[in-house]
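// run 5 | inverse folding | seed 20
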C-alpha cells in the first residue's frame, strides 16, 4: 500500500482540481450572464444592448469537458488502486493513456484560454430607436457602471485562466505514475515467468 500512496495522492489531487476546473467555468458562465443582465438594465430605456462572449464560452465548454473526463478517470483510477482491482496491465495502461490524453486536451484548451484572457474582450453593441450607438458612448457607459469589457479585468475569467493549470499538472503526474505502475507490472510478470521456468528446469533435471 505504501508504494501506491504517491499515486493515490496524485489521483486525489487530480480529481479535486478537475472538479475545481469545471466549477470555475460554470461560475464564469453564471457571472457573465449576471453581468450582461446588469449592463442591459443600466442602459437607458429604449436601448437594445447585445453582449457577446462566444469565444470565451466555447473555450469554457471545452475546458469543462476535459475537466469532466479527468474527474471520471481519476475517480475510477483511485477506486481501482485503493481496492486493488486495477493492478492488471491492460487496465493500468488504459488509465494512463486516458489520463495523459485528458491532460493534453486540457493543456491545449487552457493555453488558448490564457491567450484569450490576456488579449480578448467581450463585444458590446447597442441600438437606440434602431440607430447604432457609437462605440465611444458604449465604452463611456461601461466605465461609468464599472463593467470593463477586457477579460483580464474580470475576476471570474481570471480564475478560469489560472486554476485549471493545477488539474493539468496533477493529471500529467498521475498519468506518468500510472504508466510507471504498468511498467512495474510488466517487470513483475516477467520475473514470475522466469522463476516458473527455473522451477520447471529443476523438475526436468
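// decoded
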Amino acid at each position: 500500500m505504501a508504494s501506491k500512496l504517491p499515486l493515490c495522492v496524485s489521483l486525489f489531487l487530480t480529481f479535486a482540481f478537475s472538479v475545481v476546473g469545471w466549477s470555475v467555468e460554470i461560475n464564469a458562465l453564471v457571472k457573465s450572464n449576471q453581468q450582461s443582465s446588469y449592463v442591459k438594465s443600466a442602459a437607458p430605456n429604449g436601448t437594445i444592448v447585445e453582449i457577446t462572449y462566444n469565444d470565451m464560452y466555447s473555450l469554457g465548454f471545452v475546458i469543462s469537458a476535459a475537466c469532466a473526463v479527468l474527474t471520471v478517470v481519476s475517480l475510477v483510477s483511485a477506486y481501482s488502486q485503493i481496492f486493488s482491482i486495477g493492478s492488471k496491465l491492460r487496465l493500468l495502461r488504459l488509465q494512463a493513456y486516458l489520463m495523459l490524453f485528458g491532460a493534453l486536451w486540457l493543456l491545449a484548451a487552457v493555453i488558448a484560454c490564457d491567450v484569450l484572457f490576456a488579449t480578448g474582450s467581450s463585444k458590446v453593441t447597442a441600438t437606440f430607436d434602431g440607430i447604432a450607438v457609437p462605440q465611444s458612448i458604449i465604452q463611456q457607459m461601461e466605465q461609468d457602471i464599472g463593467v470593463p469589457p477586457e477579460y483580464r479585468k474580470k475576476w471570474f475569467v481570471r480564475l478560469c485562466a489560472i486554476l485549471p493549470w493545477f488539474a493539468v499538472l496533477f493529471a500529467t503526474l498521475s498519468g506518468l505514475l500510472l504508466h510507471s505502475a504498468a511498467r512495474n507490472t510488466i517487470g513483475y510478470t516477467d520475473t514470475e515467468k522466469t522463476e516458473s521456468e527455473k522451477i520447471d528446469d529443476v523438475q526436468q533435471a
